[in-house]
Amino acid sequence: MARDITRFIMSWIFGILGIILLVFILNILSFMIVNTFISDITSFVNNNLLIIIGISFLFFLGSLFSHFGFPVNLAMPIFDGFGGALFVFFIIKLISLIDTYILTGIGSLLSAYSRIISIIVFFLIIIFGYLSVLQHEKRRSIIRKHRM
């Protein structure tokens, strides 16, 4: 079990390093290719790098807690809920940036309701996460009864 968790942690660390490498490559490309769209995307990613790492860390913690059994896995929906809400907030910010170029108006609409949408996503993930944990624990108890 400890070996699996170590692999899992190392996988997350290499994933973060991969994200940082991609951001570095994007910064290099933005200097090589002079384009306002690429410059804005690069600036957006640079300004939101901590949010991207935070989202990754929250989902990592949720997944890490889900590997443990009951009652430790009860923390999983909370981390996944915060990660999901932050991810939705990030996507709305990205849509707003892209909307400045394609002018659909959806970016400003989503920006106006981004907090409400993020809160709804947070609670939905928590509700379905706890249902999943309870369902998984119910299956484990049924399997234990059949083995006896």
Features:
about 150 residues, mainly alpha, about 0% strand, single chain
Describe the structure.
It is a single chain. The chain is mainly alpha-helical and 148 residues long. The protein has one domain (2-147). The protein has helices at 2-32, 36-47, 49-67, 76-102, 106-112, 114-147. Helix 1 (2-32) runs antiparallel to helix 3 and helix 4 runs antiparallel to helix 5 (106-112). The model has no long low-confidence stretch (mean pLDDT 88).
Q: Describe the biggest sheet? A: none
Q: Output mean pLDDT.
A: 88
Helical run tally: 6
Task: Quickly give the structural class.
Answer: mainly alpha
Using only CA atoms, what is the Rg? Answer: 20 Å
Helical fraction: over 70%
Describe the oligomeric state of these chains in a short phrase: single chain
Quick synopsis:
The chain has 148 residues and is an all-alpha fold. It contains six helices and no strands.
Q: Topology of this protein?
A:
Blueprint: H1 2-32, H2 36-47, H3 49-67, H4 76-102, H5 106-112, H6 114-147
Helix pairs in contact: 1-2, 1-3, 3-4, 4-5, 4-6
